[in-house]
Amino acid sequence: xxxxxxxxELDQYQNIYVFTHIRPDGxxxxxxxxxxxxxxxxxxxxxxxxxxxxxxxxxxxPGIEHFRDxxxxxxxxxxxxVLDCNDLYRLGSLKEVASKFDKIVNIDHHVTNNFxxxxxxVDTAASSTGEIIFQFIQDNxxxxxxxxxxxxxxxxxxxxxxxxxxxxxxxxxxxxGELLKKGVNPSLVGRKLFDEYPLSTLLLLRDxxxxxxxxxxxKIIWTNxxxxxxxxxxxxxxxxxxFINYLINVQEAKVGVLFFHTGQDKTKIGFRSKSxxxxxxAQSLGGGGHPRAAGVTIPGKPExxxxxxxxxxxxxxxxxxx
Length: 322
Ligand SMILES: [Mn+2]
What we know:
By secondary structure, this protein is α/β, with parallel strands linked by helices. The protein has helices at 26-40, 95-99, 129-139, 146-159, 170-181, 186-195, 199-210, 227-232, 244-248, 278-284, 302-321, and strands spanning 15-20, 45-50, 67-68, 79-83, 103-108, 119-122, 213-214, 220-226, 255-263, 266-273, 288-290, 293-299.
Protein backbone atom coordinates (compact mmCIF):
# COMPACT_ATOMS: atom_id res chain seq x y z
CA UNK A 1 0.00 0.00 0.00
CA UNK A 2 1.39 3.38 -1.01
CA UNK A 3 -0.80 5.85 0.83
CA UNK A 4 1.61 8.71 0.46
CA UNK A 5 2.87 8.34 -3.11
CA UNK A 6 3.08 11.65 -4.96
CA UNK A 7 0.81 11.67 -8.04
CA UNK A 8 3.40 13.72 -9.96
CA GLU A 9 7.11 13.38 -10.72
CA LEU A 10 9.53 15.19 -8.42
CA ASP A 11 11.73 15.63 -11.51
CA GLN A 12 9.58 18.62 -12.48
CA TYR A 13 10.89 20.55 -9.51
CA GLN A 14 14.53 21.33 -8.85
CA ASN A 15 13.90 23.81 -6.01
CA ILE A 16 11.71 22.61 -3.18
CA TYR A 17 10.57 24.56 -0.14
CA VAL A 18 9.53 23.00 3.14
CA PHE A 19 7.65 25.01 5.77
CA THR A 20 6.74 24.16 9.34
CA HIS A 21 4.88 25.80 12.16
CA ILE A 22 5.66 28.58 14.60
CA ARG A 23 6.75 27.63 18.12
CA PRO A 24 8.36 24.58 16.49
CA ASP A 25 8.48 21.29 18.37
CA GLY A 26 10.52 18.16 17.76
CA UNK A 27 8.02 16.79 15.25
CA UNK A 28 7.95 20.01 13.22
CA UNK A 29 11.73 20.29 13.10
CA UNK A 30 12.57 16.60 12.81
CA UNK A 31 10.08 15.87 10.03
CA UNK A 32 11.11 18.98 8.07
CA UNK A 33 14.81 18.10 8.35
CA UNK A 34 14.11 14.47 7.41
CA UNK A 35 12.20 15.47 4.28
CA UNK A 36 14.97 17.90 3.40
CA UNK A 37 17.54 15.13 3.85
CA UNK A 38 15.62 12.67 1.67
CA UNK A 39 15.11 15.25 -1.12
CA UNK A 40 18.77 16.30 -0.92
CA UNK A 41 19.71 12.69 -1.70
CA UNK A 42 17.87 13.24 -5.02
CA UNK A 43 20.15 16.26 -5.59
CA UNK A 44 17.30 18.72 -5.14
CA UNK A 45 17.90 22.19 -3.83
CA UNK A 46 15.80 22.28 -0.64
CA UNK A 47 15.12 25.32 1.51
CA UNK A 48 13.49 24.95 4.93
CA UNK A 49 11.54 27.56 6.84
CA UNK A 50 10.13 28.28 10.27
CA UNK A 51 9.01 31.80 11.21
CA UNK A 52 10.03 31.41 14.86
CA UNK A 53 13.33 30.91 16.57
CA UNK A 54 14.55 27.32 16.85
CA UNK A 55 14.83 26.25 20.52
CA UNK A 56 18.40 25.48 21.55
CA UNK A 57 17.59 21.97 22.70
CA UNK A 58 17.22 20.93 19.05
CA UNK A 59 20.69 22.09 18.06
CA UNK A 60 21.86 18.45 17.79
CA UNK A 61 19.52 17.72 14.89
CA PRO A 62 21.50 17.21 11.65
CA GLY A 63 20.88 20.16 9.28
CA ILE A 64 19.17 22.39 11.89
CA GLU A 65 21.45 25.31 10.88
CA HIS A 66 19.69 25.49 7.48
CA PHE A 67 16.39 26.78 8.88
CA ARG A 68 15.48 30.26 7.60
CA ASP A 69 12.71 32.55 8.86
CA UNK A 70 11.86 34.35 5.62
CA UNK A 71 11.56 33.74 1.88
CA UNK A 72 13.03 36.28 -0.55
CA UNK A 73 10.65 37.62 -3.21
CA UNK A 74 12.65 35.90 -5.96
CA UNK A 75 11.67 32.44 -4.72
CA UNK A 76 7.90 32.26 -4.49
CA UNK A 77 7.08 29.65 -7.11
CA UNK A 78 7.12 25.94 -7.53
CA UNK A 79 6.65 23.19 -5.01
CA UNK A 80 6.13 23.68 -1.30
CA UNK A 81 5.61 21.14 1.44
CA VAL A 82 3.91 22.30 4.63
CA LEU A 83 4.51 19.95 7.54
CA ASP A 84 2.76 19.40 10.88
CA CYS A 85 0.30 22.31 10.37
CA ASN A 86 -3.47 21.97 10.69
CA ASP A 87 -3.91 25.29 8.86
CA LEU A 88 -1.66 27.69 6.96
CA TYR A 89 -2.09 30.19 9.79
CA ARG A 90 0.31 28.00 11.77
CA LEU A 91 3.11 29.33 9.55
CA GLY A 92 2.82 32.73 11.24
CA SER A 93 4.52 35.42 9.17
CA LEU A 94 5.30 32.86 6.41
CA LYS A 95 1.62 32.14 5.72
CA GLU A 96 1.28 34.69 2.92
CA VAL A 97 4.37 33.65 1.00
CA ALA A 98 3.66 29.92 1.40
CA SER A 99 0.12 30.32 0.04
CA LYS A 100 1.56 31.72 -3.24
CA PHE A 101 3.31 28.51 -4.29
CA ASP A 102 1.98 26.70 -7.39
CA LYS A 103 1.63 23.44 -5.56
CA ILE A 104 1.32 22.91 -1.82
CA VAL A 105 1.66 19.43 -0.33
CA ASN A 106 0.11 19.36 3.13
CA ILE A 107 1.54 16.58 5.32
CA ASP A 108 0.03 16.42 8.78
CA HIS A 109 -1.61 14.32 11.49
CA HIS A 110 -3.81 16.85 13.34
CA VAL A 111 -7.54 16.04 13.53
CA THR A 112 -8.24 19.74 13.00
CA ASN A 113 -6.44 19.79 9.62
CA ASN A 114 -8.47 21.77 7.08
CA PHE A 115 -6.96 20.30 3.88
CA UNK A 116 -5.42 23.57 2.75
CA UNK A 117 -3.05 21.85 0.30
CA UNK A 118 -3.34 21.02 -3.38
CA UNK A 119 -2.41 17.59 -2.17
CA UNK A 120 -3.25 16.52 1.38
CA UNK A 121 -1.43 13.66 3.05
CA VAL A 122 -3.31 13.88 6.32
CA ASP A 123 -3.35 10.83 8.54
CA THR A 124 -4.91 11.52 11.90
CA ALA A 125 -4.06 8.00 13.08
CA ALA A 126 -0.34 8.76 12.75
CA SER A 127 1.48 9.53 15.98
CA SER A 128 3.43 12.31 14.35
CA THR A 129 4.22 13.95 11.06
CA GLY A 130 7.56 12.15 11.33
CA GLU A 131 5.76 8.80 11.16
CA ILE A 132 4.07 9.95 7.93
CA ILE A 133 7.35 11.22 6.48
CA PHE A 134 8.88 7.77 7.10
CA GLN A 135 6.09 6.23 5.00
CA PHE A 136 6.34 9.05 2.44
CA ILE A 137 10.03 8.22 2.00
CA GLN A 138 9.19 4.54 1.46
CA ASP A 139 6.17 5.15 -0.77
CA ASN A 140 8.14 7.46 -3.06
CA UNK A 141 11.23 5.23 -3.14
CA UNK A 142 13.42 7.82 -1.45
CA UNK A 143 16.40 6.87 0.66
CA UNK A 144 16.86 6.86 4.39
CA UNK A 145 20.29 7.44 5.95
CA UNK A 146 21.41 7.80 9.57
CA UNK A 147 20.90 11.59 9.70
CA UNK A 148 17.39 11.36 8.24
CA UNK A 149 16.62 8.54 10.68
CA UNK A 150 17.78 10.59 13.66
CA UNK A 151 15.52 13.47 12.61
CA UNK A 152 12.54 11.15 12.19
CA UNK A 153 13.21 9.48 15.53
CA UNK A 154 13.28 12.89 17.24
CA UNK A 155 9.97 13.75 15.56
CA UNK A 156 8.29 10.56 16.75
CA UNK A 157 9.75 10.56 20.26
CA UNK A 158 8.68 14.20 20.70
CA UNK A 159 5.07 13.75 19.68
CA UNK A 160 4.58 10.49 21.55
CA UNK A 161 6.25 11.72 24.76
CA UNK A 162 8.80 8.92 24.39
CA UNK A 163 6.10 6.42 23.34
CA UNK A 164 4.04 7.16 26.45
CA UNK A 165 1.03 8.87 24.80
CA UNK A 166 -2.06 7.09 23.50
CA UNK A 167 -1.11 7.98 19.91
CA UNK A 168 1.65 5.33 20.05
CA UNK A 169 0.63 2.45 17.77
CA UNK A 170 2.22 -0.77 16.53
CA UNK A 171 3.18 1.17 13.38
CA UNK A 172 4.86 3.84 15.51
CA UNK A 173 6.98 1.18 17.22
CA UNK A 174 7.74 -0.51 13.90
CA UNK A 175 8.93 2.78 12.39
CA UNK A 176 11.01 3.56 15.50
CA GLY A 177 12.57 0.11 15.23
CA GLU A 178 13.50 0.68 11.59
CA LEU A 179 15.12 3.99 12.58
CA LEU A 180 17.15 2.33 15.35
CA LYS A 181 18.38 -0.16 12.75
CA LYS A 182 19.85 2.82 10.89
CA GLY A 183 22.03 3.61 13.89
CA VAL A 184 20.00 6.12 15.91
CA ASN A 185 21.11 6.27 19.55
CA PRO A 186 17.90 6.40 21.64
CA SER A 187 19.57 7.27 24.94
CA LEU A 188 21.33 10.27 23.40
CA VAL A 189 18.03 11.52 21.95
CA GLY A 190 16.24 11.02 25.26
CA ARG A 191 18.87 12.95 27.17
CA LYS A 192 19.09 15.83 24.69
CA LEU A 193 15.33 16.21 24.33
CA PHE A 194 13.98 15.60 27.79
CA ASP A 195 16.64 15.55 30.47
CA GLU A 196 18.92 18.51 29.83
CA TYR A 197 17.93 22.13 30.32
CA PRO A 198 19.62 25.44 31.05
CA LEU A 199 19.39 27.02 34.53
CA SER A 200 16.97 29.63 33.14
CA THR A 201 14.45 26.85 32.50
CA LEU A 202 14.61 25.67 36.11
CA LEU A 203 14.12 29.24 37.40
CA LEU A 204 11.21 29.76 35.02
CA LEU A 205 9.64 26.51 36.21
CA ARG A 206 9.99 27.68 39.81
CA ASP A 207 7.96 30.82 39.03
CA UNK A 208 5.49 28.93 36.87
CA UNK A 209 4.72 26.41 39.64
CA UNK A 210 4.46 29.09 42.32
CA UNK A 211 1.46 30.51 40.38
CA UNK A 212 -0.44 27.21 40.14
CA UNK A 213 -4.18 27.42 40.86
CA UNK A 214 -7.06 24.95 40.78
CA UNK A 215 -10.84 24.90 41.02
CA UNK A 216 -12.82 23.46 43.93
CA UNK A 217 -13.11 20.07 42.21
CA UNK A 218 -9.36 20.02 41.40
CA LYS A 219 -10.34 18.93 37.89
CA ILE A 220 -8.95 22.09 36.32
CA ILE A 221 -5.39 23.01 37.19
CA TRP A 222 -3.90 26.12 35.65
CA THR A 223 -1.10 28.62 35.92
CA ASN A 224 -0.24 32.06 34.58
CA UNK A 225 3.07 33.05 33.07
CA UNK A 226 3.81 36.59 31.96
CA UNK A 227 6.26 38.12 29.52
CA UNK A 228 7.96 39.66 32.60
CA UNK A 229 8.41 36.18 34.10
CA UNK A 230 10.49 35.24 31.05
CA UNK A 231 12.48 38.48 31.16
CA UNK A 232 13.16 38.16 34.89
CA UNK A 233 14.65 34.69 34.41
CA UNK A 234 16.36 35.51 31.09
CA UNK A 235 14.33 32.64 29.64
CA UNK A 236 12.82 32.18 26.19
CA UNK A 237 9.22 31.32 25.45
CA UNK A 238 10.17 27.90 24.12
CA UNK A 239 11.46 27.00 27.59
CA UNK A 240 7.81 26.80 28.70
CA UNK A 241 7.37 23.69 26.57
CA UNK A 242 6.49 20.74 28.74
CA PHE A 243 5.62 22.74 31.87
CA ILE A 244 1.94 22.03 31.30
CA ASN A 245 2.62 18.36 32.06
CA TYR A 246 3.11 19.29 35.73
CA LEU A 247 -0.51 20.47 35.71
CA ILE A 248 -2.20 17.60 33.88
CA ASN A 249 -0.10 15.04 35.78
CA VAL A 250 -1.96 15.88 39.00
CA GLN A 251 -4.04 12.77 39.85
CA GLU A 252 -7.36 14.59 40.14
CA ALA A 253 -6.80 16.81 37.11
CA LYS A 254 -8.98 16.42 34.03
CA VAL A 255 -7.69 19.52 32.25
CA GLY A 256 -4.42 21.44 32.58
CA VAL A 257 -4.13 24.96 31.20
CA LEU A 258 -1.06 27.12 30.83
CA PHE A 259 -1.84 30.77 30.20
CA PHE A 260 1.09 32.70 28.79
CA HIS A 261 0.28 36.41 28.74
CA THR A 262 2.55 37.92 26.14
CA GLY A 263 1.76 41.57 26.80
CA GLN A 264 -0.25 43.70 24.30
CA ASP A 265 -3.32 41.95 25.76
CA LYS A 266 -2.67 38.66 24.05
CA THR A 267 -2.65 35.26 25.72
CA LYS A 268 -1.24 32.03 24.34
CA ILE A 269 -3.08 29.14 25.90
CA GLY A 270 -1.93 25.53 26.08
CA PHE A 271 -4.46 22.81 26.92
CA ARG A 272 -3.93 19.23 28.05
CA SER A 273 -6.84 16.94 28.83
CA LYS A 274 -7.64 13.51 30.20
CA SER A 275 -11.35 13.81 29.40
CA UNK A 276 -12.88 16.55 27.23
CA UNK A 277 -11.80 17.12 23.62
CA UNK A 278 -9.55 20.18 23.83
CA UNK A 279 -8.97 20.19 20.05
CA UNK A 280 -12.61 21.18 19.52
CA UNK A 281 -12.41 23.60 22.43
CA ALA A 282 -9.31 25.29 20.97
CA GLN A 283 -10.89 25.26 17.52
CA SER A 284 -14.00 27.04 18.81
CA LEU A 285 -11.67 29.81 19.99
CA GLY A 286 -9.70 29.96 16.73
CA GLY A 287 -6.90 27.51 17.51
CA GLY A 288 -6.33 23.81 16.97
CA GLY A 289 -4.51 20.69 18.03
CA HIS A 290 -5.21 17.18 19.19
CA PRO A 291 -8.08 15.93 21.42
CA ARG A 292 -5.71 15.60 24.39
CA ALA A 293 -3.34 18.51 23.61
CA ALA A 294 -4.25 21.74 21.89
CA GLY A 295 -3.64 25.46 21.92
CA VAL A 296 -4.85 28.88 20.87
CA THR A 297 -3.84 32.53 21.07
CA ILE A 298 -6.60 34.98 21.97
CA PRO A 299 -6.76 38.73 22.56
CA GLY A 300 -8.12 40.35 25.71
CA LYS A 301 -7.19 41.42 29.20
CA PRO A 302 -5.37 38.53 30.95
CA GLU A 303 -7.85 38.23 33.83
CA UNK A 304 -10.83 38.27 31.45
CA UNK A 305 -9.28 35.64 29.16
CA UNK A 306 -8.52 33.37 32.11
CA UNK A 307 -12.01 33.75 33.58
CA UNK A 308 -13.79 33.12 30.28
CA UNK A 309 -11.67 30.13 29.26
CA UNK A 310 -11.98 28.48 32.68
CA UNK A 311 -15.75 28.95 32.48
CA UNK A 312 -15.93 27.23 29.08
CA UNK A 313 -13.82 24.33 30.35
CA UNK A 314 -16.02 24.04 33.44
CA UNK A 315 -19.14 23.86 31.28
CA UNK A 316 -17.64 21.22 28.98
CA UNK A 317 -16.49 19.14 31.94
CA UNK A 318 -19.98 19.28 33.41
CA UNK A 319 -21.50 18.12 30.13
CA UNK A 320 -18.89 15.38 29.95
CA UNK A 321 -19.83 14.15 33.43
CA UNK A 322 -23.56 14.16 32.82
MN1 LIG B 1 3.08 16.78 15.22
